[in-house]
């Protein structure tokens, strides 16, 4: 089967043994929640089980899952590997500069070595040194990539520096499309991938949270010109992680990996629109969503050719 540039058929996941929301990211991640009423032992166990179940569900649908373990306590957000690296057709890997100091410890050589041994890798471009200059670009959290049209959509935030974005786009042949987005309290959206999901034939995003009207219309026009169905999400739906989904290529066609929380927040009409091009796969990651990310954040797509 030919590779679909937008939907990978393999993903990398990290299974945490001692999961907890990250205190170093709480200040600018309004999606994080406190779990005072659940004992930490139970949180650890639920998180471990939910990652295990997601991996099994994906495998059942023909997705190749590379599952890595994290048994430490220094990397509370390790379950979200999509922020520290990304892979690209033609054999390229990017490694990113991370905003929170404890997230920098998530970068793992064993994951990069596995990719080199199982896939064709030409080069690894490492931007992590930009951290020393307080320049951050948190991977496919900071950018939502349109692999078909070669556009990198990026909401302005602490975690998305325009210098790093320009550098990534010139290296990897994307056009940067930067915009401002905030919630109704005026807080900036911390990661673009909680706001926007780009599939092969659709895009769903919290367009109304983009604060510049002209820019919003320009972005919508770009998606319409690419032939995609444009599905608008409300702020409430964005807060339920509806934008934090990932289209994958399964053995029975394309599917949309989305959390059960998000699925329950979609309208019947939106589900029908999505089902015109993907099968929906709701996954229970409720305990992991306490950390302010959902299914998309948990899956680092592999856009490389197998050896």
TrEMBL record:
Protein name: Amidinotransferase
Organism: Planctobacterium marinum
Pfam families reported for this sequence: DDAH_eukar (PF19420)
SUPFAM superfamilies registered for this protein in UniProt: Pentein
Residue spans crossing the bilayer: none
InterPro entries in UniProt: Amdntrnsf_FN0238
PANTHER family (UniProt xref): AMIDINOTRANSFERASE
